[in-house]
Amino acid sequence: MQLSAVNKWLNSLGFRHSSRVLVVLAGVTAPALVATHVNAEEVERPSIWVKNADRQPILDKIQTQPWAASLFNELQERVAPLASEKTKARKKNLEQLPLIWFDDRSLPPTLPKFRMKGGGSKQQLTAVIKALQDGVDCGVMYYLTQQSSYAACGADILYTYINALKSMELQKKGPMNSGWMFPTDHLYEARVIGAQLPIIYDFVYPYLKSGGKVYDLASGELASFDFDDAQNTFKTYIWLALNRGLLDSNWPVLESSSLVHNILALDNKKAIQANLPYYTHQNTSHQASLKMVAKQFAKEGDIWPESLGYSRHVAAFSIYLMTLLDRYDPALGLGATHPNIPAAYMSYYNLKFPNEEYPFFGDGHRSYTIEYPAFEMAYLLARLNNNQQQAEQFGDYLASSLKAGVYDRGHLEERRYRASPYYTPTQLLWYTDTIEGSTNLDVAPPRPRTKRLEFAGMTIQRNTHFDNPVEDSLMAFIAGGSYIHGHASGMDMELYGQGHVLGIDGGKGTYRTDIHENYYRLFAAHNSVISNGASASHGGWINMGISKVESVVTEPAFGEPGVSPNHSFTTSSFDDKYNLVAPATHQRTLALIKVSDTQGYYLDIFKAKSDTENQYHDYVYHNIGDALSVTSNGKKVVMKNDADRYQASAKLPWVEHKKYRHPGWHFFDKVKTYPATADSLEATFTAAKLGDKTIAMRALIPAGVTQDITQALAPKAYGAAPPYNKAPLPTLVLRKQGEAWSQPFVVAYESATEGEKYAVQQVERLEENGQFRGVKVTLRVAGEVLTQYVIAQDTIDDQFSAPELGIDFQGRFAVITINADNRVKELYLGSGQSLSYNGTTLTPPNGTSSAYRAY
């Protein structure tokens, strides 16, 4: 950054400055300029996390609330050994840092630079991060106890780091994300360095301003603190946040703690007022404001559009900063302006499987720790902004969690030396004395039967068994979309059964590796259809762009209770427009059908077509297990080795983050194929290591359509239940030559635990004039033989008449259940105009297209 540009920038922020360079060390010019404070009102310190008026209520809280007393004691235990005014002890504390001395020992030592070639080690980075967290804790303890030994601890660390930064060259003309102590990674530096220094300064300022000294490593003596150096450090981190980020991503949120903390550490009120809009509502070309971020939360229930790990951080950090600023200046009312950001936490909850695991999509994870600090801050934010609804929601959840013993307010979050701002002490400083909420709320309240996550193209269906929800519930999702850290998955699916996610997505691997880029992020790692052996991505984030999976129709409608306790379905569509051979059109109908309290099945109907003469389509399904066995008409299907079947994609060029070896199935191992057959098939995946009893998922494939069947071992699925997260993944592939639209892929899935019997006995295709219309499913439930006719058509106006079966249906989806005497037990009209069976007719109420009746 040129001197004139710096001067112009400082002027714009309300600073008057001299033109002299701050300091020269070992031939390196420091990056910031001295600011002369003229006519600036004094800024109250501390004021970022707390103000002086907050101190007595916090002390009262420690005296009266056991949980607060416990937090105080834990905080004290963390840093009491570091609190000393003796120079020998203060020197020893600082020497725990990975100091780097200059040849001229009269100069203060510096610290390593990180995340660059020849930079500091992981152990050194941990030491650097830990010391700053110690400094923050010491500052908080000084505020609470007024013991100058704690102030000395924090001030010494602050002074040492500022001196180290002064000796480092800012990457003035560096590329995006260039930094200071982290020359190539301001994104990381903002969270572990930039965010902490201002907090320490805010707390130890009264000590320093009253003449408190800092330990100077170069002289070995106590010295005066240089406030100008500190202010220039804060200005530099503000500049980095505003000028070195990536706008259309989660980066602005990850950098915002540094931005806001450094703004509030400025000792010029006008400069604070000039800068704070850069967080609240004013964007730069490299930094998105909260107002811009909030556009991704336009509707209640929206979440940040990235895979879950990244999405959750955006919500948590934004809630923290909104709470901080609404405490700092209640007139800002950020919580009132952007209530949908904290509401995202209820949306995360509603994504979960019955075993409390998350769907796997993009570069996410299967499980995440419940972020009680985020819930506490959301509760506080709601109260600050008189949002009664959210105050009740979060208050009830927290109160019930405390009562159930799954949450304890009396313990600080564990220290973690990773890329995250440190604000653990706010547990003690901010949390309300008591939680006002009902303790009668179920800690795991009921989730909606259907939910849509639009950016991910995700539709969730669930049928929850409330007496034994973990083992006897059904849940599935269909998903696919283009977003940051998304995968080129096509129209993906996961299936739940017997307490586990059984039909499973491949998950994520290690970033920048061949297998992650050319398998885990591509179609073959997902339960999807690959058309022409060439389904692919193009454009979007790192060339991972695919069309979003669209919801065509869903019953129950999203968030609604539904018309039937036993049935639900969704039809979704996907445009495989970047296919390397020819574009393809996909449509998937997935139904969840309960046949008893403890039994049910999934019916998956996948249509695909492509405008090319030699089209073919492969249906790919992965399921955890030790083995996969395939039979036809009760006899084992003997397959032959077919090692070269999927290897063509291995020869495609690969350029990291740009070109990929689509569709990724060259990573399949031990490939075996059975030649084309039109016979019925039964594929059973067995898993003996999930518990005391073996769990199986059976896939029934009805006869009538000629298709190849292949079994293989896919790479391990990171989201699988242990020990299957470290084992190859049994995989089933069906291939159909020609279009798969008039005669789609059809598979019925049912899971069972050892000792239980399957309900589904047989699945047969229903056809009319060579067109697939649905299936006939034969069931045995509690000794009773039942038959279900499941009808699936393309539009609500399609007609299916089968006089020989007694069926007349106009619509898209329906289920007829009859007993052995041919009497109707249930009629379910999922989407349609009328449904009749042997004279028994069901029509939906006016203005609707769904109905249900039990007989």
Automatic annotation (TrEMBL):
GO MF assignments: lyase activity
Residue ranges constituting the Endo-acting ulvan lyase C-terminal domain according to the UniProt record: 760-853
Superkingdom, taxonomy of origin: Bacteria
Pfam families: Hepar_II_III_C, Ulvan_lyase_2nd, Ulvan_lyaseC
Main location: other
Residue span(s) of domain Heparinase II/III-like C-terminal: 483-623
Gene3D superfamilies assigned to the protein according to its UniProt record, in alphabetical order: 2.70.98.70, Chondroitin AC/alginate lyase (1.50.10.100)
One GO CC annotation: cell envelope
Endo-acting ulvan lyase 2nd domain mapped to chain residues: 300-439
Subcellular localization: Cell envelope
Protein name: Heparinase
